[in-house]
Amino acid sequence: MSEAQSLPTSTAAKATTENFKAFVSGGFGGVCAVLVGHPFDLTKTRLQTAPSGTYTGAIDVVKKALARDGLSGMYRGIVPPLLGVTPIFAVSFWAYDASKKLILAATPKRASEALSTAELAAAGFLSAIPTTAVTAPVERAKVQGQGGSEQKYKGVFDVMKHLYKEGGLRSIYRGSGATLARDGPGSAAYFAAYEVTKKALTPAGSSPSELNLGAIVFAGGMAGVAMWALAIPPDVLKSRIQSAPTGTYSGFMDCARKTIAADGVSALWKGFGPAMARAFPANSATFLGVEASRYLLDKYI
């Protein structure tokens, strides 16, 4: 085989390896995020989906969960996100890397290979599109598993079986539009904030790609804060659509209208406290897991 023939093969193999690394490191980061953030997420979901007056606030949710189920009650519903988190975060980080390459390919006459903040945000938004195909059913199962005081299901497979029996794949994927409405802008803010913050914290003469634990932890936390500063209203609507009985809402806008009519505009910000409390530690853990695993993969593969 000539050098000209082997070059494309070598390039394709390198691209496949890079895709694999992005996929695996994203999944590992997601596991870290769930282990750290699930109690906060459970609190947020219950505040968003419970009838008005059920809880006085986030602390009340925690107190009642601990009184009823003990510490394990704060991890109810963790199996669906743990089972789904690897593909969700793996696809998200793979799609983000792919989207950055797509932007570079679409702008060949560039002065610099470094993406602007707007381009990073665009890549983040694009990453949410394929990720929604995995996120929506996992979120649907998670919301069903977390909601209410009664243990309705025996586990994640029981949840999925019930949802499929209720309305097939359409039931399992209920809330997909709301999920994308949350994760599109949220991912744009998420990845852009991480890259910009990490670059700002990188010492002069060093590269942001080098492993700097302090910068990673802080930038990851700020990425989570940036995302959830935008994502709470669509997240509230997503949680309500996915937890309500069939036929309650005809769609995203119908849910918004009925939520505001019943509980006021402030209802769109339910769960803001737990979400923001979760945002920094969970996403610090996410990016630390992503960067550390990527460092090891680059070293040994």
UniProtKB/TrEMBL annotation:
A Pfam family assignment: Mito_carr
GO molecular function: O-acyl-L-carnitine transmembrane transporter activity
Annotated organism of origin: Collybiopsis confluens
Keyword flag Membrane: yes
InterPro entries tied to this protein: MCP_dom_sf, MCP_transmembrane, Mitochondrial_Carrier
Protein name: Uncharacterized protein
Solcar repeat start and end residues: 17-102, 115-200, 211-296
GO cellular component: mitochondrial membrane
Keywords linked to the UniProt accession: Membrane, Mitochondrion, Repeat, Transmembrane, Transmembrane helix, Transport
Transmembrane feature ranges: 78-96, 211-232
Top-level taxon of the source organism: Eukaryota
The keyword Hydrolase appears for this protein: no
Family: Belongs to the mitochondrial carrier (TC 2.A.29) family.
Predominant subcellular localization, coarse grouping: mitochondrion
Gene Ontology terms describing biological process: carnitine transmembrane transport; mitochondrial transport
Bilayer topology term: Multi-pass membrane protein
Annotated compartments: Mitochondrion membrane
Coiled coil segments of this chain: none
